[in-house]
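Hi, here's the filled form for the chain we discussed.

Project: internal
Contact: R.S.
Residues: 342
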Amino acid sequence: MTRRSRVLLVRLRSLGDAVLMTPALRVLKRNPGTRVAVLLEAPFHEVLANNTDVDRIIAVPRGRSKLLTRSLAIRAARSFSPDLTVDLHGGTTSALITALSGASVRLGYAGSRSKRFYNRTVPDSRQIWGKDSIHTVEHQLSPFKHLGFQVDPMPPLQVPVGAAALKQVRTLLSRRAIEEGFLLVHPGAAFDTKQWDPAKFAEIAALLEREGHPIVFTAGPGEEPLLEDLRKTAPPSAHFVGPFPLDQFIALASLCRLYLGNDTGTTHIAAALGKPLVVIFGSSDSPVWSPWGTRHRLIRSDLPCIPCPGYYCLHYQEPMCIRSITVPRVLEAVRSLLRESG
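And the returned structure, exactly as it came back:
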């Protein structure tokens, strides 16, 4: 293909998707002179704030009317004057932004329900990679592999730590007498089918503290009630910090020895930082969403109904995919990774 000088990626929605997109950014920047813009929703844009592979970040505000949001996003996309716009999301809004971005090549996945908005499509990612199972990182690299960009060697995830945020977090930890090298526990999740029992997180924290491992609990904005519930059962010596803005969470995670959490966006941040991690899976498709590029233990059930959309449990009174996972399984996974890391 001819070299494109201005490329716009449209990647709405989740934090995890934004993190798992970062290898694609590095692939684009392998072409000298290429300028890259990414359009994504706030506050997820903050994960790209210190990423030198991005020349422009277009943050779409949430909580406004759909008409206004689309109008602002389209105007911002057009102001970048892209030659190539790639829809990595595939929803109606992202497809419409792609169609009206002003790019001469407006690319999306052939399997998207909104493919009528594109003037060029990408085949099934499994066909592009020549294998039956595709991770989300590979899926988001598929358009560029299809277009002839150099995807090998495949770049790692990139979530740089901001200097100012790191200083703020280190100051906070010092005031709380928390030394670096703690075990970071993030018990939050987007859906009930991905939420391991908080009482089990508290139990495992108590067991690990008895073995001499300091524990820090944190959670995302809006998850304050979860932390308050955990305080009732967690060991008194456990530390609770946050919720933090994304830049400070990234800084906090960069200082931990090991990360323990559910299948959620912050888990992918820990993976991008190269942290050993234990992730507890419920309804999600683990080959598609497993941690990428770092040592990890993935704990999941073997129920035949997995994976499922995950908005609610379709087969049981409660989501047994996540409820059936026991403390001993998770504890042994944490211990084994700690032994490996010395």
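Let me know if anything looks off before we file it.
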